[in-house]
Specification:
Two copies of one chain form a homodimer. Chain A is an all-alpha fold. The first copy, chain A, contains nine helices and no strands. The longest helix of chain A is centred in the first third of the chain and has 29 residues. The structure holds a DNA duplex.
DNA sequence: GTCTATACGACGATAGAC
DNA sequence: GTCTATCGTCGTATAGAC
């Protein structure tokens, strides 16, 4: 019971928490909330079933935390793009790149998970509203970059929030479809951003 | 046991089948497969729980049939657009309109349901492949219209299949997002088709 | 902090009466 | 063809030993 030990315990607890969250993110997004058993999560994290409830109140509790994590990460990503030392176009290119980078499927899974959450009946309405609010934060961040780009002359006119929504819709729609087909489209940042740029390259799709 | 009676029985059976399919479509897409109970489906169709198994082998059996129904409907819709007596642009406008028409949420739910099916572990791999194949049929139909539009000079250059995928991704992404937000974007056919048209209206988004 | 064993409820599926 | 009653299983959550 020395301070030293308490600290160690806390470290272990934090580490286990993170492991369970990671496992849950992976499994929820692959199989959906209802189809994922608590024992799936614990076995993936190499813990016993019973121990789960020392770390989370319930399966639903963990679910909501995972959704929040995803959105938090995305908001941070947009913030990182905003703070980059480049033009607005460069920022959008970077953001689009990293969204599609790594294991492509991971991004897809996360996106689907958020959508599922919005339509799930395992989550109460206030929490859903919170999710929508956080998503809108991300949209606003992107809208801000687009606004910059408009002033630089790179991007087409129009309400930045609306353009941001269009951009996200296209990017995510492509992500979802791409992850499923055997021969993915050669998804290029240029093509996704094409809809935003002012017309100088109408033949771009042929590249 | 007269022929007359047999016919009546068949009619009743068909009608119940359809009712159950409709209920299932609604519930699966709103709540997901796992979260939808067989009793939910039957009570929505105003039948008893036990009777369900006179019409379908299992819950999973019905699930696959519902997914097939959705895709079949969509393929028919694309075919109907193709056969319309208008320019390719007119066909795409019509298709986009009807996709977003009616109860908007209905379209969203269907789309999400197909996506969920592709990632579900309640469906075996051959069936998933079949789903992808059917989806590609629809994409090919749209690609055909786009090809027409390119020759008419309405649409930008590029691989039609790829453009069709982009179009669907954007349309569905918007649909999903729009259904959730309280104040939906005034989703206009023009805006969705903007990415396909040759550049003559870069300020369209401001309308 | 970790585990095994178990209580308890929910749901898919079946049986059998009408 | 339709219903109610019931079985069997699975999964969440808890209890209690180490």
């Amino acid at each position: 019971m020395t301070p030293k030990n308490e600290e160690q315990f806390k470290d272990i607890r934090d580490q286990r928490q993170q492991e369970l969250r990671r496992s849950a993110l992976k499994l929820f997004s692959q199989k959906g909330y209802a189809a994922t058993k608590v024992s799936d999560i614990t076995s993936n994290a190499k813990l016993s079933h019973g121990l789960f409830y020392h770390y989370f109140e319930s399966k639903e509790d963990l679910y909501v935390k995972v959704i929040r994590d995803i959105l938090q990460d995305f908001i941070k990503l947009v913030a990182a793009a905003t703070e980059r030392n480049s033009t607005a176009l460069g920022k959008m290119e970077w953001l689009t790149d990293v969204t599609h980078a790594g294991s492509i499927r991971e991004g897809v899974y996360r996106h689907i998970l958020v959508l599922q959450a919005l339509y799930s009946d395992h989550i109460n309405e206030p929490t859903k509203s919170e999710i929508v609010t956080r998503y809108k934060e991300a949209v606003s961040g992107i809208a801000h970059i687009i606004h910059e780009g408009q002033q630089e002359g790179y991007f087409i006119d129009g309400d930045p929030e609306e353009l941001a929504t269009y951009h996200l819709s296209l990017a995510h729609g492509l992500l979802i479809w791409n992850a499923r087909t055997d021969r993915p489209l050669a998804l290029s940042t240029d093509k996704v951003l094409r809809q935003l740029k002012v017309n100088t390259d109408k033949g771009l799709m042929n590249e």
